[in-house]
Amino acid sequence: MNYLLGVDLGTSGTKTVLFDVNGQVIASATVEYPMYQPHNGWAEQDADDWWEATKSTVRTVLENSGVNPADVKGLGISGQMHGLVLIDENGSSLCRSLIWCDGRTQAECDEITAAVGAERLIQIAANPALTGFTAGKVLWVRKNQPDVWAKAKYILLPKDYVRYKLTGVIAQEISDASGTNLLDVPGRCWSEEICKAIDLDMAMLPPLVESCEVAGTITEEAAKLTGLVAGTPVAGGGGDNMCGAVGTGVVVPGKAFTTIGTSGVVYAHSPEVQIEPQGRVHAFCSCIPGEYVNFACTLSSGLSLKWFRDQFCQAEIQTAKEMDTDPYVLMNTEAANSPIGANRLLFLPYLMGERSPLMDNNARGAWIGLTAMHTRKDLLRALMEGVIYALCQNLNTMREMGVKPEAMLACGGGAKSPFWRQMMADVFQLPVKTLHSSEGPALGAAILAGVAAGLYKDVPTACAELVKENEPVMPIEENVKAYEPYYEYFLTLYPALKEAYAQLAKL
Hints:
With 507 residues, the chain is α/β, with parallel strands linked by helices. Helices cover 41% and strands 18% of the residues.
């Protein structure tokens, strides 16, 4: 039997999963690591923590599975996107990585926008300059840490650093590179125009590889450290959302998924690049050579529900502990006792500001329509509906671009809720499906490794064989009609409050 390794390099930890070629999980292991926040709005991690976690988890799954390492035919990595890793001429990391949720670089993003031009930047990079993206971080280090910058030879992303430690090959994978603000996304190459505008030496940008290509092979040294066999192929891999798409089969037109995790993502595959002129929807290169993806991110999806649980649901938490169940199960039951529209109450889920499609850091959460008649079940249902409305607003923005999925896969912790899945089907007006496997990004990385190693013809063929869907939840017509006026009213609320949010931020 042949096997594949999928490494999921996340923010809280790295999870490595060993799969057989039929996509069945053989063994898995996770190692967590810290995130450092030396100042408000900053977020950093040590790149060598990722490497140590990868070594440890690969060794553990090989030892626990009893699989002969020679039967592992490939390894792929799914990585948290946008993080800046600077390495010197010896390949050593020079400082902590500024990761995706670091928000210190607004001034640098404004500088990039001014240097390139807002409209031109979106035409080239397919996205505006955002604090989460890598280019602003590059300028920040250059400006604020000149000693570090003077030693820097290459700019890498998190998973590309780990792949370098495994293979000794300096390279950057193209789906992940899409999130740097330095890539010519339609041309699938580094942008000389952007680099010239911000005075960045293009020699610092490594050669690009496609996700399902062999980017290198396990070195003798890495073999000793991980238990793998030297010469094992390592695929280019992909950004976490792109690998998640592969792991959920969203690799052909008409396919899409919605993730309700801490943040929320609506993601669809496209054979051609589709750029939203205002940058409200991200356009990145796909893990499929020559193809693209669109996705939009809301910042407080599952986070909104977790906040409500932690602040207002101590009774449910205690009762759930006594019943040996999840507090969210009890909260779902409570919310279902409020009618659609939560007795004319709406919630804006902007607890952390908002990215897509508003692009407003000043936006804030709110219940609208609150009266003395409302109870906690109404607040809870309105919150859950508000999250779905915000996700639907992004889906409809994508529909305006011509990206029109035929069904929606539900992923993330929120997808475990039948109540939320039915609400999604009714508001999106689409069938909503789940998957047999919950190992999306790790499975996606393993599939990419299998294609690189020649075990599968191509990514879509592999996904058709390995990714299994459950029966869909269908929209209920009377619910669809009931939600429509509330959704339409929801769309009017942020524009009405935008100036108030801006003024509040100044107080």
